[in-house]
Specification:
This protein is an all-alpha fold and 211 residues long. The chain has 8 helices and no strands. The chain is globular, with a radius of gyration of 18 Å. It starts with a helix and ends with a helix. The model has no long low-confidence stretch (mean pLDDT 89).
């Protein structure tokens, strides 16, 4: 990455991660679990949501993570259902944020010159933000622990399948890491094969451009 790319990538990823984790905390608090709020996670301050190693990986390896929001499902009226809502809130917030950045991009693109010295970095930030938020939204919906999709799937599975799913969850982080490393080493990304079509489809829908 050159300097301009870093200056657009960093605020884009910080805003995406912050919104994602904030809405996990906000939803949990609304549904009766104050754990995240009491630990200072119900905030839009990105520092509260940063995981140091996860942030370093984002910058150098182009994948990473934020600090997981603590949730005590025992505080929910309906733990199984409400935990699904909390899990879904993160990816949903990234999708909505991508849409809002897309609407801003359309509005500005129609009224100002995108290639001007002043506006070019702003357009680059908007496009990068749309891409990152869509990737985070769909990546986190993959049903592999500890991603949000695994918690959603767990809430949908019949009770008699939960013990088997818990066994799979023990190995899921290694499966996920393996998929990421295979893509980096071979140049053939299984994850992007899954994530690419919806990310590109909604990027085109939100911006009118092929990113």
């Amino acid at each position: 990455m050159n300097l301009q790319e870093i200056l657009t990538f960093v605020p884009a990823i910080l805003s995406a991660l912050t919104i994602h984790e904030f809405f996990h905390a906000w939803t949990a608090n609304k549904l009766g679990d104050p754990t995240a709020r009491l630990q200072g996670r119900l905030t839009l301050n990105p520092i509260a949501h940063l995981d140091i190693m996860g942030t370093i990986c984002f910058i150098f390896a182009h994948f990473g993570w934020g600090k997981p929001v603590p949730v005590n499902a025992a505080n929910f009226n309906n733990p199984r259902r409400d935990n699904m809502f909390v899990s879904f809130a993160g990816p949903a917030s990234n999708f909505v944020l991508a849409f809002l950045f897309g609407a801003t991009f359309h509005l500005m693109y129609a009224n100002v010159e995108p290639n001007s010295q002043f506006m070019s970095p702003i357009f680059m930030f908007l496009l990068r933000s749309i891409e990152i938020n869509l990737v985070l939204a769909f990546f986190n919906m993959i049903p592999l622990f500890p991603l949000d999709g695994s918690h959603i799937l767990k809430g949908l599975l019949p009770y008699h399948l939960l013990p088997k799913f818990d066994i799979i969850c023990k190995y899921s982080p290694f499966i996920l890491l393996g998929l990421i490393l295979i893509g980096q080493q071979t140049g053939v990304s299984i994850l992007w094969t899954i994530l690419g079509p919806p990310v590109l489809f909604f990027s085109k829908m939100f911006t009118g451009l092929y990113l």
